[in-house]
Amino acid sequence: MTGATATGAGFVALRRSRGRRLVWLGVVLAVLALACLVSVSLGTREVAWADIAAGVSGSTDTMARAVVAVRVPRTVLAVLAGAALGLAGAVMQGVTRNPLADPGILGVNAGAAMAVVIGIAWFGMQTLDAFLWTAIFGAGLAACFVYAIGSLGRGGATPLKLALAGAATAIAASSFTVAIILPRNDIAGGVRAWQVGGIGGASFDAIVPCLPFLLAGLVLCLLSARSLNLLALGDDAAAGLGAHVVWARVAAALGAVLLCGATTAICGPIGFVGLVVPHVCRLLVGVDHRWLLPFSALTGAILLIGADVIGRVVARPSEMDVGIVTAFVGAPFFIWIVRKRRVRDL
């Protein structure tokens, strides 16, 4: 095959790959729109489309007001939280080159939750702004601790050591959180319900203060796409291609911490979204982070909306928190990944 022929074949393959990704992008956007419609219309009580339309148009009908006041902000929060967790999971897997990386498995969510509980129990913290800053601080501290522990010994921060350090940190933080809550009957009920992870009771008043943190995390993560592609080649190769390895990792990790901290503050620790979503997206668009990161955000939103709708339907007339549903989905997926990759290959 001549050089010109090879170049032409490569160009055609690139166009086919881009076309396939654009098709999947259209499919994912359509599914997300459909999931949002289902989330608004379906729940513990059926709501007719006429009532939904009346509520959106500003009708004073009681049922329409309930739809707008409860289900619409709940759907918006599910989109934001799912996108944040899916994107953060993809970034963490890229930064650590670890297929098991996830805000829950690496202890980031547990660190954020522990910091919030300490603030409530010991310092009387009550405002959402305080929750946000405290959760982000706790998430960042947990991430630094896990990476420091995983870097000890021969070979540095290997994927296996990071996974083990993250699991140990998550267990320790969760245990310490329980120890703080047990003697405090005045806060135990509310904190335990929050710890399960859910989006019930969402309101735009609670969502708006989170937006700057989520936006900052989104920008940092998306801007890190090229750096993550280089880091996937190895630190030496990335440095040889002009990447500042340390700063690339710090910027990407900071974006993930902002996303995880803000989401945990408003929803509680929701696990496994960041683990499942990036693996599914790699099957659709490959390993290029310029495509993988936005797809992970969109697919994470779909997963969390779906989990929320399932939680409303299966436990009628009550509800099952979204954190429980994602655990049912994510735990078998985690076992499958471990069996497929094999521990010695991590």
TrEMBL record:
One of its GO terms (cellular component) is plasma membrane. GO terms for molecular function: transmembrane transporter activity. The keyword Coiled coil does not apply. It comes from the Bacteria. GO terms for biological process: siderophore-iron import into cell. This is Iron ABC transporter permease. Its main location: membrane. Belongs to the binding-protein-dependent transport system permease family. FecCD subfamily. It is a multi-pass membrane protein. The chain crosses the membrane at residues 22-42, 72-92, 104-124, 130-150, 162-182, 202-223, 256-280, 292-314, 320-338. Keywords: Cell membrane, Membrane, Transmembrane, Transmembrane helix, Transport. Pfam families: FecCD (PF01032). It is found in: Cell membrane.
